[in-house]
Amino acid sequence: MTVVGPFGLSVRDQALEADVQAGLAAVEEGLLEATKSEVPFITEAAQHLVRAGGKRFRPLLVMLASQFGDRHAPGIVPSAVVVELTHLATLYHDDVMDEAEVRRGVPSANTRWGNSVAVLTGDFLFARASHILADLGPEAVRVQAEAFERLVTGQILETAGPTDGRDPVEHYLDVLGGKTGSLVAVACRFGAMMSGADDSVVDVLTQYGERLGVAFQLADDVLDIASDSHESGKTPGTDLREGIPTMPVLRLRERVARMGLAEDVALCELLDSDLSDDARHAEALARLRVHPALTQARRDTVRYAEEARAALVPLAECDAKVALGEMCDAVVHRAG
């Protein structure tokens, strides 16, 4: 058994490993090429997060999905670059919205250069992704546009919050389907579509990607509470400090509404206080880390990962299918 890519996926088949490794190496070259500008400062800012590394989760999925058709088709690597550029662009914007100080173990772009540069750099990456996408055909443009609309809608829904009477957990899962699931689904769709796989296979892999993307974000929610900065590559409790209601907090509030335990009410009051105070923030993190709400959030992660695995059932048995199943295990493992 060997390990492929920064995400740490185990692959048993040497030919599949070689294909995936070669594909990811080509994507890395493509990312560096796509983020070059005639203006040196723009190049530096655009390559800031590329050079910081990352899991390359979405390009890895493109490579695995391409195994169900012609894995050497010319559109596969460019489509993986498009998906990763889009993802990177959203990180620049997210860090501005969240006032994050660290991303992938390095100072965030907004910390280093200010909010305006960070936002404009994200826009630059979106433009470069669109330029590559134009060469992949109108169907690829349509798929990306629909996913990007869903991504932005999910972000807006998160900012607006649930409407009166809407279950906050259900609302949040819809948010994640847009914010994260949509682009992960596109990664799987592009890999299969660009390889010329049958439409039924493309549909199966798209459904798989949507569910895996939600599981991936739920695992991130757990990591935001449970990990240290070395493990996650960003400051722990960033969402907590900004008052963003991630799944562990939503599960806590759900428990308060159901049971009304004094210690849970007190923790909610702490979360509603000014967590820009480091002492309060540290106390909130420490209490959440041992709370049943975090355990429930881990169960939510497992549930969506298992739904992703179940979506793969119609596919013919092959090493790529096994690897995609192991991606579900890897996502769950991240959440502890």
Write the layout of secondary structure elements.
Layout: E1 2-4, E2 9-11, H1 14-34, H2 40-46, H3 48-51, H4 57-65, H5 76-98, E3 102-103, E4 106-107, H6 109-113, H7 115-134, H8 138-160, H9 168-194, H10 199-226, H11 229-232, H12 238-241, H13 247-259, H14 262-271, H15 278-289, H16 292-311, H17 319-334
Antiparallel strand pairs: 1-2, 3-4
Helix pairs in contact: 1-4, 1-5, 4-5, 4-9, 5-7, 5-9, 8-9, 9-10, 10-16, 10-17, 13-16, 16-17
Tell me, what's the shape? globular
Low-confidence spans: none
Q: Tell me roughly what share of residues is in helical segments.
A: over 70%
Beginning-to-end CA distance, first to last residue = 22 Å
Strand tally is 4
Strand portion: under 5%
What is the H-and-E element order?
EEHHHHHEEHHHHHHHHHHHH
Give a quick account of the main beta sheet: strands, pairing sense, barrel closure.
2 strands, antiparallel
Number of helical elements:
17
Rg calc: 20 Å
Structural class by sheet pairing and helices: mainly alpha
* Main sheet strand line-up: 1-2
Q: What's the average pLDDT?
A: 92
Description:
- This protein is 73% helix and 3% strand.
- It has a two-stranded antiparallel ribbon. Strands 3-4 form a two-stranded antiparallel sheet.
- The chain is built from 17 helices and four strands.
- It is globular.
- The chain has 336 residues and is mainly α.
- The model has no long low-confidence stretch (mean pLDDT 92).
- 47% of the residues are buried.
- Helix 4 (57-65) crosses helix 9.
